[in-house]
């Protein structure tokens, strides 16, 4: 059972009530709860997290921090989220749906898929640096834990 469904049930909210609050069809919410698809809109994740009283990162499964402001000074926006490497590796073993809606997105993914691991690591570091410096406070940086964090 995914976190959306689990939290909804813990709070005693019906699928109909939650779907109505979110302004979506019950079937869409059920699809999210069953892992058939996931919302792509950040504002939707924030609204859902607010209703369920947890962080958006927790709902998405990218962090185990339930509280929205736990460990962050500005709770209105996360500057970065450290991904749970174990959870990501478990998800990678399963099929992942990615929507490619432009030829540029397709070319980017096709090219990235050809890079050796060391070059992919460098590219990821460069992208994270750009997000940190150019888009600080407006985009969230997702990253794996540092080697020191991973061994603790």
Keywords:
434 Repressor (Amino-terminal Domain), 2 strands, two-stranded parallel ribbon, 9 helices, 152 residues, 2 domains, mainly alpha
Descriptive notes:
With 152 residues, the chain is mainly α. The protein has two domains: 1-72, 434 Repressor (Amino-terminal Domain) (Orthogonal Bundle); 79-152, no CATH class. Helices cover 53% and strands 4% of the residues. It contains nine helices and two strands, in the order αααααβαααβα. It has a two-stranded parallel sheet. α2 packs across α3. The relative contact order is 0.10.
Structural topology:
Layout: H1 3-10, H2 15-22, H3 26-33, H4 42-52, H5 56-60, E1 80-82, H6 85-92, H7 103-112, H8 117-134, E2 141-143, H9 147-151
Parallel strand pairs: 1-2
Offer a concise description of the structure:
The chain is mainly alpha-helical. It is 53% helix and 4% strand. It has a two-stranded parallel ribbon with strand order 1-2.
- Rough outline: globular
- The total domain count is 2
Number of helices: 9
What's the story with the biggest beta sheet? 2 strands, parallel
Q: What separation lies between the terminal Cα atoms?
A: 28 Å
> Ranges with pLDDT <50 over ≥5 residues?
69-76
Task: Classify the secondary structure makeup into a structural class.
Answer: mainly alpha
Cα gyration radius (Å): 17 Å
Strands, total number: 2
What share of the residues lie within helices? 40-55%
What average pLDDT do the residues reach? 79
Q: Please indicate the percent range of residues in DSSP E strands (runs of 2 or more).
A: under 5%
Helix and strand string, N-terminal first?
HHHHHEHHHEH
So what's the oligomer here? single chain
Order of strands in the sheet with the most strands?
1-2
């Amino acid at each position: 059972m995914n976190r959306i469904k689990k939290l909804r049930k813990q709070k005693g909210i019906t699928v109909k009530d939650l779907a109505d609050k979110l302004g979506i069809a019950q079937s869409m919410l059920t699809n999210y709860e069953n892992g058939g698809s996931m919302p792509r809109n950040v504002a939707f994740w924030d609204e859902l997290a607010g209703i369920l009283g947890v962080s958006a990162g927790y709902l998405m499964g990218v962090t185990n921090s339930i509280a929205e402001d736990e460990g962050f000074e500005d709770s209105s926006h996360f500057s970065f989220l450290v991904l749970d490497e174990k959870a990501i590796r478990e998800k990678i073993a399963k099929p992942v749906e990615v929507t490619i809606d432009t030829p540029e997105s397709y070319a980017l993914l096709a090219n990235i898929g050809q890079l050796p691991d060391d070059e992919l690591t460098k590219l990821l570091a460069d992208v994270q640096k750009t997000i940190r410096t150019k888009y600080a406070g407006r985009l969230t940086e997702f990253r794996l834990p540092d080697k020191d964090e991973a061994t603790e």
